[in-house]
């Protein structure tokens, strides 16, 4: 039974492909269903309550949308540590609710749709929603959406923008054209949008400025587009549409405050269910705020690995990608899992370093993993400021009292501190630096 990419099989025995599948940019989503399935079901370790919470909030009962439930559009935050698996779980949820729950899911990834992941601004959220909906309504006449032409005219009012757009779209348009469909179709093309919407582009700055000034009007347009998308989805046999917004892992948690706090009313007005994957530190920015009640909370729990069975299950993140007999000694796997802290991303980084830099593409031993752990731990330790080291020394010594100081939030955001169901632990990569 095989899953293939460029004629490779999983788990792979090819050293060159092994390096590729351990690297963080490797996209396993094409292999989250099929034979074999690279998705590792961790519900047996962390439980399935978070998944059941999603279905309850979306009104899905026995695989169908509950028709008796009041038509309330939920805004749901999936919180979890960076690297804990939010993106994969959201992608898996997309397949589940689309196949079983009657929703047409529109999945939006900021990291993929923006050419500069670290510069995400709150206005981009609304522009990405527009782009996605225009793309989804490709068969619709956009002239039927009141306001799209007016918004386009607002965007296109500066000559320098037209020059940037014509260069990115390979066109020779001017702002006097009454037909603006070409403009919206161009923005909805991810390749063209990526060329156009860059950090230093005048177009980027103008669009952000217009959305900030006209946020309510933009939301009205998005809601009209949602009606079109809902009609198209019903023709495909779906009952409703669901938006999932993900892919902002490079964004500092402070930027979420601008989006989810300062623009909470605009988000609440969106006429659809919305799920956003956000780092756990952003949760503490929302706690205690007046806007907190707008959002429903789902937490992807972090877990301690207990016993050989759980270690082996978590280790499948590696052994379903790499042939175990060819590349991974048992003790290497067990040590790597122990030092991962229960983070899929950290586990992959450990084995990538061990395989590439120490095993040199050969069989990974416990010694190779230990060297990788030491290198990654040193990299993390060297980034810490003196006040950070004071905090983690207290956390390691058991005298740490959790509170929402900026320092603690920074350490949570950077995976130096890890929250396990109310308890706080230090990242195990730092164990040898805290002796």
3D structure, described in words:
- With 435 residues, the chain is α/β, with parallel strands linked by helices.
- 51% of the residues lie in helices and 10% in strands.
- The strands form three sheets. The chain has a five-stranded parallel sheet, sandwiched between helices. The protein has a two-stranded antiparallel sheet with strand order 1-2. A two-stranded antiparallel sheet has the order 8-9.
- A hairpin with a 2-residue loop joins strand 8 (417-420) and strand 9.
- Helix 13 packs across helix 15 (280-286).
- The longest helix is centred in the middle third of the chain and has 21 residues, at 215-235.
- The model is unreliable at 1-6 (pLDDT under 50).
Give the helix proportion (percent range).
40-55%
- Annotation, overall tally of beta strands: 9
Strand count, sense and closure of the main sheet?
5 strands, parallel
- Low-pLDDT stretches are 1-6
Average pLDDT across residues?
A: 87
SSE-based structural type = alpha/beta
Total helical segments:
22
Rg computed from alpha carbons, rounded to a whole number of angstroms: 23 Å
Strand content: 5-15%
Strand line-up in the sheet with most strands: 4-5-6-3-7
Apparent shape: globular
Question: First CA to last CA: what distance?
Answer: 47 Å
